[in-house]
Amino acid sequence: MKRRDFLKTGAIAAPAAALAAPAIAQGVIEWKCPTSFPSKAPGIGTNATTFVERVNAMADGRLKLKLYSGGELVPAFAVEDAVQNGTAEIGHGTPYYNAGKNSANHFFTTIPFGMTATEMSAWLKFGGGQDLYDEIYGQRNLVPFNSGNSTVQAAGWFKKEITSVEDFSGLNMRIAGLGGEAMRKLGVNAVLLPPTEIFPAFQSGAIDAAEWVGPMLDQAFGMNKVADICYAPAFHEPGAGLNVVVNKDAWESLSPDLQAIIRNAAEAAESETIAQFEYFNAQAFKALQDSGVMFKTFPEEVLAALKTAVVEVLDEQAAANPDFARCLESYNAYLSVARPYSAAFSAPSMLQRG
Amino acid sequence: MKRRDFLKTGAIAAPAAALAAPAIAQGVIEWKCPTSFPSKAPGIGTNATTFVERVNAMADGRLKLKLYSGGELVPAFAVEDAVQNGTAEIGHGTPYYNAGKNSANHFFTTIPFGMTATEMSAWLKFGGGQDLYDEIYGQRNLVPFNSGNSTVQAAGWFKKEITSVEDFSGLNMRIAGLGGEAMRKLGVNAVLLPPTEIFPAFQSGAIDAAEWVGPMLDQAFGMNKVADICYAPAFHEPGAGLNVVVNKDAWESLSPDLQAIIRNAAEAAESETIAQFEYFNAQAFKALQDSGVMFKTFPEEVLAALKTAVVEVLDEQAAANPDFARCLESYNAYLSVARPYSAAFSAPSMLQRG
């Protein structure tokens, strides 16, 4: 029952409120929520912002989350550690920033030539993905929720055209995730720079090519000021998941309704963030084209080589880590039916509008 | 503050609980929630079920929704009327079932050759769509929320192959929405049968062809027992929105946290239902193919004729209804940038996995 309900109840309001006040104060739960991203960055950061606002609005003072922007409370890549060790009760980021803890975390962000944002949500909710997510994150005393997705990304910004696999040889490129591992097999010197270092490194020539996210964020970070060739779509990130993680002890201390509020806020934030990327990527794609950026697709030969390299990377990871192998089996079981379905329904539905 | 918090607070619990009990009883809000669909029907009905469960779990007894299956409290197509006149406080269905009230409602379900589920969510949240939705539903004292989407549908089940536009002539077909109007221009006798009447009419030969939803629901309703040719994807329903409507007076009586709970539950249900269609459509597509169903695409000539017919229908509707014209302008402003974006990013991302 909320304080304002006491105030509405007339004669009994005064004594009840007087008695209840200390209990209400006792009942307020305040949690720290660091994110890996700048909290104002469109999509990735605003996903954290909207999640926190949604929880606070629904919990009406019973649970209060305080958001900390990337680096403010803990380093950007240390959010999950902070939640695990109790420095924060809840955190926000993306699983593959913690692939060093368990390579299977890649499945909860993205897999090259893998699932779209919608397919990933389908796998998590109906294909057994969430059970694996819960189990693997449970090893670190974390309760995970998918809270958003970048939707399909760009393959990256290049200063020179890629006409064959040979053009990758010796290329210094910023690229995240398992796609970077695949690129290495084709001769790329793949490096993972944190978001804020990508633009300066690209501009100074320290790197020759860079992928960041997609039109909306690439434009916001100024990639088009350094290069005018953008390859798309990404082979490596067909949709990167964002997440909320809760310290398991903190989670279990919550009443079921507050747990439901966190769970629903994450799913609602997912809907908002996917919509945000979809809307502003389309606007930015047009603006970038209008400003002279050339969007290109990799030649078939290059795509084929990347596919071979990706299969090798996935096999190697599966051989090295049983968690990765179990996730790969579950992931591929759905992907093998999702691929022909999307080729027969979703993709032609977009293309036939002409 | 919740009852269990009183019970936890020790010494002050007994008198506070004793005083608060009548106020808690007073504070419980019980709302009827009829849906247009059978409440167990996968996707369309379970969207209503999960929405109600989510609200009830988060509101923890302060707001209790009771779900009524299609036809149980009011006829399937009369849900919005019931919410408008106060027979129910909240309801569930799809806007184009009420296109007779305002033809602009089609924009909040689907438009032929229009937006995907994700694009529709993007338009509503970021492209001005929700403002139009609120305004047009506000005319009937309703507050609307997009709560789900069928994702891309099938074009329909046919007993004979469609090789040219002439094959449409005189065909008796069940088809919903503005796609039915376009089909009429090509000689189809388009009829809109309620869900439960489609299969019997198709089986008896009263209709020659029928579209219902997509693989998951078409299989569940037995369409493949009558015909073995399914055209896909739909031209007419690239993703049909489901909705929750609240009586405006009832809405305004809610505290902001309960309003936030309804809003978030609708968005979270949207995420779940899109995932459900995506997952089980893919499984059903495979099962239907394995059982001998032939999936085909309309010939280019037929698609071109349908496009021309759709443009005519949209122009006629816009000329007849200023609300429709305003929605069409807003819808097309985003669709015109969404189309090239999805053709360059989303569709090839699905197809390059091959």
Automatic annotation (TrEMBL), chains A, B:
Signal peptide positions on this chain: 1-25
Organism: Aliiruegeria haliotis
Keywords noted in UniProt: Metal-binding, Periplasm, Signal
GO cellular component: periplasmic space; tripartite ATP-independent periplasmic transporter complex
Binding locations of Na(+): 212
Keyword Signal: yes
Residues reported to bind substrate: 153, 174, 211, 237
NCBIfam families: TRAP_S1
InterPro entries documented for this protein: DctP_fam, SBP_TakP-like, TAT_signal, TRAP_DctP_sf
Protein name, as recorded: TRAP-type mannitol/chloroaromatic compound transport system substrate-binding protein
Lineage: Bacteria, Pseudomonadati, Pseudomonadota, Alphaproteobacteria, Rhodobacterales
Chief site of localization: periplasm
Places the protein is found: Periplasm
